Amino acid sequence: MTARSSTPGRVDPGAAVTRRGGPRRGRGERAVERGLAFWLLLPTLAALGIIVAYPVGRAVVRSLFDDPIHGAPAFVGFANYAEALWGFERLDFWNAFGNTVLFTVVTVAVETLLGLVMALVMHRAFRGRGIVRAAVLLPWALPTAVSAVMWGWMLQPGGIVNALLGTEIVWGGAEWPAKWSIMFAEIWKTSPFVALLILAGLQTIPPHLYEAAAIDGASAWRRFTSITLPLVKPALVVAVLFRTLDALRMYDLPQILTGGANNTNTLSMLVIQAATRELKQGYGGALSTITFLFVFLCAFLLIKAIGANVFAGFGQAEGGARR
Amino acid sequence: MGTTGPGSWTRSLALAVAGTLLAATGCAGSLPGEDGDAVVTFAVTRASGGDMGAIVERFNEENPDARVRIVYLAAGADAQRNAMVQDLQARTGRYDVLYTDAVWTAEFAARGWLEPLATERFAGPNILPAAAATGMYQGELYAAPFATGTGMLYYRSDLVDDPPTTWAELIAACPIAEANDMDCYAGQFARYEGLTVNATEAIASAGGRIIDEDGDVVVDSPEAREGLRFLVDGFREGYIPKAALTYMEDEVRLSFQRGELLFMRNWAFAWPAMQEPGPESRVQGKFDAVPLPGLDGPGTGTLGGNNLALSTYSDHKAEALRFIEFVQSEDVQRRWMAETNTPTSWTSNYEDEELMAAAPHLVPQRKALDAVQPRPVSPRYNDVTNAVQKHVHAALTGAKTVDEAVSDLQEELEWAVKGA
């Protein structure tokens, strides 16, 4: 951001401050400051090393060893990875992979649309707006485990969902009802989060842009597509990015709602199953490394595809707003 | 490269860090509410059904030199096992006596976490042989039998005169359910441990096995197919309601006590819950329990239960063994049975008339305990039960045929127990 906004022709308050302070300081002073900065950062770096780098590194190293019941694990190279990707466990792995991708794509798409609508509603000034905002946020405030148990009860064969729909579907009794109930509960729970992020974006759009557009005779639809959408896009992208990464790690909701029955396992569920229940830390480590790489790849591609031009657009939007 | 555990320097670093953190919070190595003089720690689920704290208190009064402190673990079996595994893997010896589930014995013993126990002292003639079997692994006793139990067939005695002893008789009684606008039969068929129990019982009741005494996978047999077919046909033909695909112990009990089921497979715990006066149960005095039915005659239940095991890493083994002996004793078990109305392992208590009059369902339960088959015994039990649940559930929902499910299960189990 800072690098982009300090391009010529644009005023950057941060850059100006640095420039003003610059000439008064000597080179040595700056070196001292840099040394101090290093020492101040050191505890944080050490803490991160212990709680992040070391465990992740251990898991990756451990994934190269097998899992005997008794005795020391032996080095097996990438056998655990081969096992998951094309070995005996491939069916379980690719089913879980497919489910994870399906859940992510469907829920993030629907949540983004719903979240946008909810944010637009919450953004308008009307009587009782506070109540609507609170009501919309309620599902997000509930712990996932609690809402999963709640949905589990409502989706029981004699539960309220069937009573309201007038159906007798056994939601946990077949593949697609089970998958839809997971996706529905996930959408219900996290749309408010998306709405909240988008609402924050909407509130940064200066009202005079709409006033000017209205004077120019732009229709409501035109104002939405030409002002709201482009200016809210950065917030939208952040929301999609957060939600995608989150959904790719989905665990608690399907675990409690279906326990993986009817082909609803996700990658994270396989990791837990292998590493903590079956005590196969090597195979579990391989699964979690694969999951980590996949999530990382998705994040990278998302930022590449939609992130870059949006962040550029963000800078322009801010510049425009300031003028 | 032979070792993968953290290297010695990383281990000491981790210890140093953990030690500093603990010292800083002023609770190094201690547990909240701890009994400072205790020498033995007893790790037990907080949902054991009875008052374990009272047992420990009585032991402590009589044994001031071997005081026991109790550590309550989570109610869920997975969480209990996680807590124990973490302690055992770290070799801390913090938990001396473990309240283990019957199906953990093989794994914990194979990993070298449990101290072998003297068979004559902890599984002598006073102990039900079925309960003793759940503490055995490869011919040695690793856990002292305590709570036990097997599945029973509950039936509505106001509607059915002669309880069925075979599946054919059960199915033949289903028109009674239809006439009363009820469902006929249900057990625990959600995809969780209860499904392994129900599948094992169905397969055993037709004369089959999943894993035999030698640890070989033998599920691909005509008997196992026959047993599974009873359940699969039940869903297809409707004598088991589709809703049972989501039932665990409590869901099926609620359905039965609301008067929606004619027959139910459940454990002994359901009896007192359904007899309790009040509007919650509509079946007080209208039901009874018998051993499970089978293909050609009485069926075979499988065993649930909890045992008392001694950690290899315990520093106070003699005291811990005295405590195990105390908990297992006739008197403690009798009180436990009177308090919880659930079966335990001491044989002579089933002849106590006062006790049996107060909990009449324990009479058929005792009978059922003579014809039982343990769940598959394997140090890779979690892999085994996961595979059983996956393929059996797929067969019950119709995603797979019985033949496909059984041969897929055979293949996956062979893979799972390999090298175990």
TrEMBL record, chain B:
CDD domains: PBP2_TMBP (cd14750)
Taxonomy, superkingdom: Bacteria
Signal sequence extent: 1-23
Keyword annotations: Signal, Transport
UniProt xrefs under InterPro entries: Bact_solute-bd_prot1 (IPR050490), SBP (IPR006059)
Family: Belongs to the bacterial solute-binding protein 1 family.
PANTHER family: ABC TRANSPORTER PERIPLASMIC-BINDING PROTEIN YCJN-RELATED (PTHR43649:SF34), ARABINOSE-BINDING PROTEIN-RELATED (PTHR43649)
Name this protein carries in UniProt: ABC transporter substrate-binding protein
